[in-house]
Design goal:
The protein folds into three domains: 343 residues, no CATH class; 213 residues, no CATH class; 200 residues, no CATH class. Helices cover 50% and strands 17% of the residues. Strands 14, 15, 16, 17, 18, 19, 20 and 21 form an eight-stranded mixed β-sheet that branches. The longest helix has 38 residues. It is an alpha+beta fold. The radius of gyration is 34 Å and the shape is elongated.
């Protein structure tokens, strides 16, 4: 009997090749997309889980006075040793300095490394970063020792063991010097919340600035803790206040400082802190991708049901004959359910093949590494097999139930008709499909427009044609700074030049700042700080809204003046920016009066509101900003490179365009948009197959009606309209269902952005119109084919 069932199943597959291909192909695409989305989500959820002691690693999150609602990962140095000393449940502490840049040279090879950290020697006791060469216990114990990742080591030394060799270093937080290679480690896995190419001993940094390791108010370190297995997080946090009282004494609101611990495994997706050491994920995006994956699978399964029931009339007589000769309904259900499972198994195999073939594309598309092993691991295979079984049962049970329920007498007499309830179910499935499709269309438009808005928004400063040269505080460049500036200014294609410690989108510190408030009190704040020269504000065309900016005409500007942005003036208590001009300030050993207020400009990404910022005068820095006015940028860059090579032959010419660098902050958003649009269009395409199935079924049901109408003189356009109007009604119903759902979901997603677009009514009107056009295009072909058929063929059996 089973052999017979398989024979019949494969005969039906071969008999209806087109329908079989659509059925299996649509389901395979849905399964492949579901699997790829599952791999992406699995990768996002796997961050930092590769460490053997990941469950016992926490990091310190800091909170200061004006940042009570905005905690920082970046914090002070003394908290680490103090915590380890006072809490026996803390086994070890590891501290990283903030990301550093250093020019490393070995013989003829010279590179500026930007992914560098100074770190404690205990780093390899806490984190699972294996060393290929060197001893992890001693690799970073002595000052000026350095550990390279495998990829970085190859740049300087090829494939040889470099342990014991030396690199000359310029820049970084420590003094310039010679570093001894003490180890080579495997490259940091891609699913790490921060990565690096170079680790240098914290002792190197300590020798250059030992005092900051005792300052609780100095921010320059990331602190990680390894705790015991019986560690009680809630109990530990309850002791935090007494711990701080011991080291900081009684603190009022102005001196507010607190901290809490965050699990390492929460660092990537669940952290609310800012100033992260690396990129972070977006949990709401994962929920959206998960929904799209389920939508794709649901739409593909609904297609399966519709296309199966669309062929039910052709198998009605088969069911009738089987029942007459003694087949039970239960046996018929098993048969048709088995046939469904055969189709699903074929689709699942094809889906696996499609997923395998798409892995390299997914790697390039998302920037994440995907391998065949990611699919063949046990959890993924269990998920996939479970999905196949569930899909086979759910998508096959309804057609099996319908087909096995045909009445043999009506079927064999030729009076069989489909039940109204069955028609309603199929129409309901199409409404469900197109509700999802319309929601995806509207969401796609919103996602695209939101990112485009972020890319096109006026940031409050001129970022076009800004060429940024990074010399990383090179002493030889600093000693000839005016000569460099004058040489650049002489170039006809350079409109202006500025030197600064920071440019928008790059690293910037916070500064403890005391400001005179409106009631005359001196109050402490911690705004961010840009250290700039007198040309910075006009160079970037930042608007001055009160007072003035720095000028060489005022000698006091270099030692006793400060410029703030509007957000800072407001946070200091001044609703009217002009009221703060002339007020006293103290900042980093400098005191004087505030001379001006600039308008807020977005110096970081539009994910965050403009924060309080002070612009502090500093005639030196690490970046040249050159405003280009050339129609041939490549020629101008070549000429500037020649100038650089003549004046600083020892340092690589490193440049970037500011707009490009600034937009790199949105790479995760761009990838999200690409994936969202791709999978949304795949879902819409698969939904069209379901609509085709229902259109086919309807046309088959009305074959004789169409023949009679044609004999009586009906035109083809009238018949096409007749067959299409019911489906258009279904799409219109879907529009009304999808609109509130997608509006709510995308409004929640937009709330994660500080600057966002408004959800306009036309987006849903456009989405509905697109859905109607898709429906007409899908149905129209089959309707026109039915309208043009020969009526004699449909009426000759009457």
């Amino acid at each position: 009997m089973l052999k017979n069932y398989f024979k019949i199943a494969f005969r039906n597959l071969l008999k209806n090749k087109a329908y079989s291909a659509i059925n299996i192909g649509g389901l395979a695409i849905g399964m492949a997309c579901f699997l790829l989305i599952a791999l992406f989500i699995q990768n996002e959820l796997s961050y930092d889980h590769y460490h053997e002691k990941a469950d016992n690693i926490y990091r310190v999150i800091h909170q200061g006075n004006v940042e009570k609602s905005d905690p920082w990962v970046w914090g002070n140095a003394p908290i680490g040793p103090a915590l380890k000393s006072d809490f026996p449940e803390i086994i070890e502490k590891v501290q990283f300095s903030g990301r550093s840049d250093i020019l490393l040279t070995y013989e003829e090879n010279s590179f500026q490394e930007s992914e560098c950290f100074y770190v404690d020697a205990t780093v390899f006791d806490v984190f699972s970063w294996p060393l290929i060469y060197g001893n992890p216990k001693t690799a970073l114990e002595t000052p000026y020792s350095i550990v390279l990742t495998q990829t970085t080591a190859k740049k300087y030394f090829g494939n040889q063991n470099p342990v014991g060799k030396t690199l000359d270093g310029i820049g970084g937080r420590a003094d310039d010097g010679t570093y001894t290679v003490t180890g080579v480690m495997a490259d940091v896995p891609s699913n790490s919340h921060f990565s690096f190419d170079v680790l240098m001993s914290m002792g190197s940094f300590y020798q250059s600035r030992p005092e900051i390791f005792e300052w609780w108010g100095y921010v320059d370190f990331y602190t990680y803790l390894l705790v015991s297995d019986n560690f009680d997080l809630k109990g530990f946090q309850s002791k935090a206040s007494n711990f701080l009282d011991k080291y900081l004494g009684t603190r009022d609101a102005e001196d507010y400082y607190d901290f809490y611990l965050e699990s390492l495994q929460d660092s990537y997706l669940h952290s609310k802190a800012v100033r992260q050491p690396g990129t972070t994920g977006n949990l709401s995006n994962l929920y959206i991708f998960g929904c799209i994956g389920l939508f794709l699978l649901a739409i593909a399964s609904i297609n399966f049901m519709n296309l199966s029931t669309a062929r039910s009339l052709e198998r009605a007589k088969e069911v009738g004959v089987r029942k007459v000769v003694g087949a039970s309904r239960k046996g018929l259900m098993y048969q048709f359910l088995g046939e469904s499972f055969i189709l699903v198994l074929l689709a699942s195999f094809l889906g696996l093949v499609l997923a395998f073939l798409s892995l390299s594309w997914m790697t390039n598309f998302t920037g994440k590494e995907f391998y065949i092993e990611d699919i063949l691991n046990v959890p993924t295979l269990i998920l996939y097999v479970g999905m196949v079984l569930l899909t086979g049962f759910l998508s096959g049970s309804y057609p099996a139930l319908i087909l096995s329920g045909f009445k043999p007498i009506g079927v064999l007499k030729g009076t069989f008709k489909s039940s109204p309830s069955g028609t309603r179910v199929r129409k309901g499935l199409v409404v469900f499909q197109f509700s999802l499709s319309i929601a995806l269309i509207a969401s796609t438009v919103l996602v695209y427009n939101q990112l485009q808005f972020m890319m096109d928004k006026d940031l409050g400063f001129d970022q076009e044609h800004q060429l940024i040269l990074d010399f990383n505080w090179d002493n030889e460049v600093l000693n000839n700074l005016e000569a460099f500036k004058n040489e650049f200014k002489r170039h006809p294609d350079i409109a202006s030049v500025s030197v600064s410690r920071t440019v928008p989108s790059t690293h910037f510190p916070a500064a403890g700042t005391t400001v005179e408030t409106p009631n005359g009190e001196m109050k402490h704040f911690s705004p961010f700080v840009f250290e700039v020269d007198e040309a910075f504000v006009p160079h970037y065309n930042i608007k001055t809204i009160a007072g003035r900016t720095y000028s060489k005409d005022f000698a006091s500007d270099t030692i006793s003046a400060l410029v703030v942005n509007a957000a800072a003036a407001k946070s200091f208590g001044y609703a009217n920016p002009s009221d703060i001009v002339g007020k006293k300030f103290q900042q980093w050993g400098r005191e004087g009066s505030i001379i001006g207020v600039v308008d807020d400009f977005n110096y970081i990404s539009l994910h965050s509101k403009v924060a309080p910022l002070t612009l502090r005068y500093l005639p030196v820095g690490r970046y040249f900003s050159l405003k280009m006015q050339s129609n041939n940028l490549q020629r101008t860059i070549t000429e500037i490179r020649e100038i650089w090579n003549q004046m600083a032959p020892h340092r690589p010419f490193m440049y970037k365009f500011l707009d490009t660098a600034f937009n790199e902050q949105y790479q995760a958003d761009i990838k999200f948009r690409k994936l969202f649009i791709l999978f949304s269009f795949l879902a819409i395409g698969i939904a069209c197959l379901g609509l085709l199935g229902l259109a086919t079924y309807s046309a088959m049901q009305r074959t004789k009606e169409i023949g009679i109408r044609k004999v009586l003189g009906a035109k083809a356009t009238h018949i096409v309209t007749l067959l299409s109007k019911d489906f258009i009604k279904l799409v219109v119903i879907a529009i009304f269902i999808a609109t509130p759902f997608s509006w709510y979901a995308m409004n929640q997603w937009l709330n994660s952005y500080a600057y966002k677009i408004d959800i306009q009514w036309w987006i849903f009107a456009l989405s509905g119109s697109i859905a109607i056009i898709i429906a007409i295009a899908t149905i129209g072909f089959h309707a026109f084919k039915s309208a043009m058929s020969n009526p004699v063929k449909s009426l000759r059996t009457e």
